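## retry 2 of 3
previous attempt timed out at serialization; input unchanged, resubmitting
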Amino acid sequence: MGKTRHICVLSSAFVFAAFAGQVRAETLVVNSYGGPYEAIIRKAIIEPFEAATGISVVYDAVGSASQDYAKIKATKGYPGFDVVVMTASQSLQGCRDGVLAKLDSATIPNLKHLSPRISAAAGPCGAVHEVQYMSLLYRKDKLPTPPVSWSALASPELKGKIVLPTFQNIMALYLVEVFSVMNGGDLVDNLDPGFKALSEVAKQSIGFEQSSAILESYIKDGTVWAMPFWNGRAQLLVDSGLPVDYVRPKDGTIPLVATLNIPIGTEHKEAAAKFIDFFLERTSQEAWVRGYKVGSARTDIDVPQDIRARQITSEADLASLMLPDLSVVTERLSKWADQWERDVVAHAN
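## retry succeeded, writing output
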């Protein structure tokens, strides 16, 4: 009897130790954004993932994409979180710096269902889980006729009624690139026409702001009548009942390619890969597009026509976007930041 009891105790100890190890291994820290984003990702992605896998997710809503990447780089890939939401620019930089893990379809099968063109823009370390685009947001009660071109920002009726992003917000560079193409330049090699055109637009602006929350506060209270804004957040403002709407200007626009990334030092790579694969599942992408009002790099999703009409959900939509070489953008960003201060900010009233 003593021998049997001894075996039972050992077995119980072994099961407890195994269970404890499993709990430690199956807790995942996901770093992303707060506000509406957090509420939507919890309901559309995290809670279904936890129910399907038994993996517990700790949500870390601290830092912007650039701040998160700075932390990853400073810690050499050991930032304290396992999955992070950033953009294609940080994905490319992280691969180059060797602080983000490379992702492949062997561990994340749903990568195979993403648009090759958009996936290539993010590089081998980023899984594209959403696509937004820079839209032109406007007040319907102030501009009853929708603007159709980015050139509307320079129209006399909008003098003192627009706001521009600072260069720390990637929308600023996207504006330069779009205006460059509109005025005979291109997306990366000749931006001078864009800077020159934006110097005139700057004379219309009440100022420059980095934060999307502050930018949208101006259009909410009617101080600003039009401004560039990510279309997903623009749609949330429309849905809130504000007298606003947004357009994808006829001149074209540039996408914000958002990615899921795994820092190279995470202890939970398998669980992190499962989370990313779950986020890229067809049903998950459909839930995310419906909930956060964004587009997807997965074009086989089934979403309502009213969403499809305004979001990026097809190969034709993706092909219509201007897509600068982000590796070149990263290399030249500091030079362009100086030119922005000299050629744009200096001309503002």
